[in-house]
Amino acid sequence: MKIDKPVNKPVIVALDFPDTASALSLINRLDPELCRLKVGKELFTRTGPDFVRNLIKRDFDVFLDLKFHDIPNTVAGAVAAAADLGVWMVNVHAGGGRTMLEAARNALSEDSGTLLIAVTVLTSMGDEDLSELNVSATSAEQVMTLATLSRDYGLDGVVCSARETPMLRQSLGEDFLLVTPGIRPAGDSADDQKRVLTPSEAVRDGSDFLVIGRPVTQAEDPSSKLQQIMAEINGKK
Fold first, then answer.
1. 102: pLDDT confidence band, cut at 50, 70 and 90?
2. Domains (ranges, CATH) in the chain?
3. Which of 58, 188, 208, 230 shows the greatest Cβ crowding within 10 Å of its Cβ?
């Protein structure tokens, strides 16, 4: 599915919470006109599909971040199930290879409305981490290989570090979506992320969507923090 550019609502708030009550305490303070939401493995495992349906009923676009990586038939079924939930975006691991990526793509109908993207190299991993896995490529080289594979087999985009967006944008074109975690507003801690940029830097370098977790979810005033991030993206002071 193609998406018109420029992309609106670039911020995806990561709901990194252990239970429904904690997540809803934040969600109740956010405006679906200003951001989208990401539901990951822990929250989905604890709360299940009904929680996702509830977010969609509240008019939030939901990125279901479960990073499917399995045999092609299993991944295809999982992607189809995600689309049936009505999620805006779902992802798989590009490392699953051509057959798995094709199966995932084919599981979505043209009118499903669900975007399919792939994870390249986790932003918590650097060159040394890849070397320990006997991957001789640098993180940037591995990202390029996996992103190219994803584009060639029909996916809508990839998850990547914002530091790789300039080379990916140049090589893969404007229509390929780049979704970047590891975003930290100026002055915020990098936490456990090794490859990070500020929101304005990420957008400048070609990122379409910015996954932002702790800077918003752990803020004293999450709504104000989100407005601050949007102001930074828009170049305001």
1. very high
2. 11-228 (3.20.20.70)
3. 208
